[in-house]
């Protein structure tokens, strides 16, 4: 209610008519051309978005109204509003209390309520105002609707004037329009505030000196900070150091030229890592408002795809290097074999037996080297079938000591630092020894055959993935470190050390397969291998093997058996390679066995049903006819559960089931092998 006001008897509807402007421009043009720099609002292009929106809505009003904004209560009005006051030509930029000084005691309390955020419509009783000399006084009702800035604070109010000289119906109509207009502004402000609160994109406002002013909930949720932690903080302190120069250039463009280009940069999370954002920004003259879309996952996915392409490229390089090295090594070995056989054939044709044994020895040595080469290649490619056994790690290492000492040579010292009670592991003993021999051989050459090698075993518990999410999962492992005090390795050599045929040794002194074989064996055993080294500081090769929870069985006493011949035991020999099968049959027959042979799975099962029983079945794993050697063995044991089986294979694309190998009377041999070892393994199975 406005005090000390006398109601005026309405006579007829009156609509306030604006005075004729001295210029032809519209009021909107006059506002844009007015020198606002002299007021507290500042230059018109730098007005905040909330003020611009309020002024645009004001122009749409069919009745007199003004936007009153800022600490000085500057007035921005429409055409109809300027007819209410005796000022010429406009009241633009005037202070509201000065403009309405004659009735300020009546208006002041309502203005203060609006600045506190409360809307008012004062109509009963109306207030009598004088529009100018000679103009008739008017009785008017006034509306005061608070206006909010970008942060939701009250920055001003909308002043609405309605003449009450009209009849009640017209009065109600004007009142409804005024209220509708106020509601439109309130709804727009509420929608903007809701967008700020509910947006999934990070939003922040920054002062021109790049200090944090405010941020929306999505910004705090994404980066983990609290409002107290980042209040007035320099934004550059949160930007990744590598991106700060780019951010400073972009902000300068926003402030000076109002650029709208997007930039991508990183902001620091409270935990220390960084999130990638794609930012858009706008400067309203007072604050810089930035909206950022979190693109961290997109960037990481792009990085993963790039890394995968790089790995594929490197893998192709390794395959090319592998093929070249394999061809070089095999050509050397085949040349030794072919040359020896050629000389042997010539001596036999000439009837001369001198040096025949030397030629045979050269050919045999080349064959053994070729066998070792293919074994290493298969181990590196993780296609070498393993025969893992549960074992006491320390005991097995001690049993391998004689082999390691021979590999090291007389002037190398071997030291042991073994865990007192290491956990049990399940690995292939032969491959473990082969890996240790390769590492000791490398250590001897790194030490120039005079130095120290230390084997260190320790139990390790991983609480996180090692070394990253693509490595070993958390769990218990047994670590074996092989360390020497040799000349060490450069970082570039460490990065390629596990590549096949990569070597830093002089030509002819190494095939480059030793470390690649170690890497393949450890990986195939479910573990992980890595190298730590520096020039002149020695080398340390580490291997992690998964812990086996089962108890280690007691070691049975070793019973020495003399080499013996077979005594007519019946053997079923199954292999699809005709020449190899013929050689194995002839040798086993000479050792006293009764041999029945088959070339595929169907023939093997037919022989087993009609020509059995057999004391031992020797079968290749890879067989033609749609059945593998594993399936043949299972079918035979369905008919005869106690059937003894010796698997032989040169390549296995699938691992043999552990349950199958663990059954009594079962063994596995990897091709190529000496025929004497085949006969010896057959006798061992028959004696069980």
UniProtKB/TrEMBL annotation:
<feature type="modified residue" description="4-aspartylphosphate">
    <location>
        <position position="620"/>
    </location>
</feature>
<dbReference type="InterPro" id="IPR001789">
    <property type="entry name" value="Sig_transdc_resp-reg_receiver"/>
</dbReference>
<dbReference type="InterPro" id="IPR003661">
    <property type="entry name" value="HisK_dim/P_dom"/>
</dbReference>
<dbReference type="InterPro" id="IPR003594">
    <property type="entry name" value="HATPase_dom"/>
</dbReference>
<feature type="domain" description="Histidine kinase">
    <location>
        <begin position="325"/>
        <end position="549"/>
    </location>
</feature>
<dbReference type="Pfam" id="PF00512">
    <property type="entry name" value="HisKA"/>
</dbReference>
<dbReference type="InterPro" id="IPR036890">
    <property type="entry name" value="HATPase_C_sf"/>
</dbReference>
<dbReference type="InterPro" id="IPR011006">
    <property type="entry name" value="CheY-like_superfamily"/>
</dbReference>
<dbReference type="InterPro" id="IPR004358">
    <property type="entry name" value="Sig_transdc_His_kin-like_C"/>
</dbReference>
<dbReference type="InterPro" id="IPR005467">
    <property type="entry name" value="His_kinase_dom"/>
</dbReference>
<protein>
    <recommendedName>
        <fullName>histidine kinase</fullName>
        <ecNumber>2.7.13.3</ecNumber>
    </recommendedName>
</protein>
<dbReference type="InterPro" id="IPR013655">
    <property type="entry name" value="PAS_fold_3"/>
</dbReference>
<dbReference type="InterPro" id="IPR036097">
    <property type="entry name" value="HisK_dim/P_sf"/>
</dbReference>
<keyword id="KW-0597">Phosphoprotein</keyword>
<dbReference type="InterPro" id="IPR000014">
    <property type="entry name" value="PAS"/>
</dbReference>
<dbReference type="Pfam" id="PF02518">
    <property type="entry name" value="HATPase_c"/>
</dbReference>
<feature type="domain" description="Response regulatory">
    <location>
        <begin position="570"/>
        <end position="686"/>
    </location>
</feature>
<dbReference type="Pfam" id="PF00072">
    <property type="entry name" value="Response_reg"/>
</dbReference>
<dbReference type="InterPro" id="IPR035965">
    <property type="entry name" value="PAS-like_dom_sf"/>
</dbReference>
<dbReference type="Pfam" id="PF08447">
    <property type="entry name" value="PAS_3"/>
</dbReference>
